[in-house]
Amino acid sequence: VKGRIIGISGPTATIDLEGLRLYDRVQLGHSRIHGEVVRLELAGAVVQVYEDTRGLGLGEPVISLATPLTVQLGPGMLGSIYDGLQRPLDVLYEQYGPFISPGTYQPPLSPDKLYPFQPLKKKGDTVKRGEIIGTVTEGNFTHDILAPESGIIDRISQNDFTMEEPLGEMADGSPIQAVHAWPVRKPRPFKKKIPPREPLITGQRAIDFLFPIARGGTAIIPGGFGTGKTILEQAIAKFADVDVVVYVGCGERGNEMAEMLGEFAGLSDPWTGRSLRERTIMIANTSNMPVAAREASIYTAVTIAEYFRDQGNHVLLLADSISRWAEALREISSSLEEMPGEEGYPTYLSSRLSTFFSRAGVVETMSGATGSLTMILSVSPPGGDITEPATQACLRTSGVFLMLDTSLANRRHFPAINWFQSFSLYEKDIASYFTEHVSPHWEELRQDCQTLLQREEKLREVAEIVGAEGLQDCDHLVMYIAEKIRRQFLGQNSFSDDAFSPPEKTVERIDALVLQFENARTRIEQGDAFEDIIREMEP
Ligand SMILES: Nc1ncnc2c1ncn2[C@@H]1O[C@H](COP(=O)(O)OP(=O)(O)O)[C@@H](O)[C@H]1O
Ligand SMILES: [Mg+2]
């Protein structure tokens, strides 16, 4: 089916093709750039175009691909860097250099690389849809190859294979493949959802101890410019206790992604000692790339993440930042001349976001394993004002809220997580998990820590009115220890040896500080002077 371009407006184009479905993919113009149908009209459709529309002219041809935007899922993704449409940026860079002309395409999974295949079933075996029939090894990682349909296996390979050839065939003729395509806007199936109960350890004390994130949960990190969103997300990408990390650079600076790529190549996963690159997939849609592809990129990312979840892995999706995604949505919506909602965002912003968030979770997979998909998204509200629509929409659906504070960042307290405004809906479950598995005092210490921080805040207000002389020795002690907690415990420099703190170390450190407090308090009660006690504590 062929048609023509009859209008172009910003990142969208109007075409005269009929018989299309919503989200069908089309190729536009002589350079065959890709787009996706976002509105159907009486005699045609409107398409959001994934590449720069400036090269397109009216009357140029349009071809329907009759499929929605899909990703290729299978071995070969780990360590890759893709754009929002799963084009392999490293492969394209090698071939074409830094300037990729519109319409350029390369397969996302290397077609001629050999992978070892280990069959677990044989010819004549009856299998159920989604049952594991063999495994493919990719480095240290094992991919389960699942039965495409219920039925009998007619042929199954015993050899190494490339992406080109099927691994076998079912009796009804359907091929058994290591690679398959999946439409990005459609969540992948699973047996059932399980409530998140286990922690996703980030190695960041302020998060793990005060505002823990659950595996399968969702967290947002709102913060103004320069408050440390990118550094915090990158630290979590390095240290999180997960099997696979999918990192989306969404509308932010490209050099940050490039630096991260280089840095990760030389680092290892603190939990397994393996190369960090091997567990990471990066999706780059930086500020210089077209907005329609940016809109699509988070769906590409979450679908890849679901693929690994479906194999019984713990997967973490990080996006920096979801606000730039919301802005892309706004730009597309405005060029479609839709009725704008609050601050020009489309009225469906909130429902789109909650549909996206709902793809996180712990699941029982089709093959009966347990997998999880956790999402951590940074939010960059203009001027740091969290009452704006995108932040509010995220806030309504996320389980953890890590508010980054400009005044803390200005004082160089990093991560600049505000300990009064942030919260975690998983705190009860996760604290009891840590109490059981890491330290019997975890919950108690958490209480002590929070109480000390709150008392400090109150005392500071009092001191402002009556002056520091008005405080008693035990008040001075509270302020002294609380400051230590802020500096030595909550503060954690990502560029030092302290960047990663496993839970055992975390609890040890807060335990030592609380113990100091209790000992000093006993001595004050016995009549010792605050100054003397401090002098002894500071070597
Ligand atoms: N955890 C951290 N440890 C040390 N320095 C940090 C940390 N987080 C942020 N910074 C400092 O703040 C700067 C801005 O951080 P960045 O993550 O780029 O902010 P944002 O992404 O919110 O604009 C960094 O270049 C770094 O100097
Ligand atoms: Mg940033």
Q: Taking Cα atoms only, what radius of gyration do you get, to the nearest Å?
A: 26 Å
What binds here, in terms of ligands, is: adenosine-5'-diphosphate, magnesium ion
Distance between the termini: 80 Å
DSSP helical segment count: 14
Describe the global form: globular
Given helix and strand content, the structural type is: alpha+beta
Average of the residue pLDDT scores:
92
Explained architecture:
This protein is of the alpha+beta class and 539 residues long. Helices cover 33% and strands 23% of the residues. It has 14 helices and 25 strands. The chain has helices spanning 89-96, 205-210, 229-239, 254-265, 291-309, 322-335, 349-357, 389-397, 406-410, 427-437, 442-466, 473-490, 503-525, 530-537, and strands at 2-9, 12-15, 24-28, 33-41, 44-49, 61-68, 70-73, 81-82, 117-119, 126-127, 132-138, 141-146, 151-156, 168-170, 175-176, 180-183, 192-194, 218-222, 244-250, 280-285, 314-320, 361-364, 370-379, 400-401, 423-424. Strands 8, 17, 18, 19, 20, 21, 22, 23, 24 and 25 form a 10-stranded mixed beta sheet that branches. Strands 1-2-5-4-3-6 form a 6-stranded antiparallel beta barrel. A 4-stranded antiparallel beta sheet has the order 10-13-14-15, with no helix packed on it. The longest helix is centred in the C-terminal third of the chain and has 25 residues, at 442-466. It is globular and about 90 Å long. Magnesium ion (MG) binds next to helix 3.
